[in-house]
Design brief:
Elements: H1 2-12, H2 17-24, H3 28-41, H4 58-70, H5 76-87, H6 93-103
């Protein structure tokens, strides 16, 4: 972002896109894109990407970890049902497996 702010700063000083590109050693298309984004949105901040948000909240992850530590012989299906009764999360067994794998719990 430091480059983007320098890019905008140079533009406000009436420098051309070619001069800014040469000064900052970045492509002209990048300079042009940053200036266009700044003009349209008023900022050069990165917006959140599209896609479905995570189903598991931080509370759900803590409950999942607690459930697995308490009884490690449970199946993914029974863990999903336990999470549904404990904190009201409607998650699938695949999500449970994926989250456990991400936490480093295998098998």
């Amino acid at each position: 972002m430091q480059t983007a702010s320098a890019n905008i700063g140079e533009r406000l000083c009436n420098k051309s896109i070619r001069d800014i590109s040469w000064l900052l050693n970045i492509p002209r298309s990048t300079v042009s894109g940053v200036i266009t984004k700044w003009k349209q949105l008023g900022t050069t901040a990165i917006e959140p990407r599209s896609g479905k948000p995570y189903k598991m909240t931080e509370l759900g992850q803590r409950m999942l970890k607690h459930t697995v530590r308490r009884s490690c012989q449970l199946s993914a299906e029974s863990i999903a049902k336990a999470l549904q009764t404990l904190c009201g999360l409607q998650i699938s067994t695949t999500t449970v497996r994926r989250e456990l794998y991400g936490m480093g719990v295998h098998g």
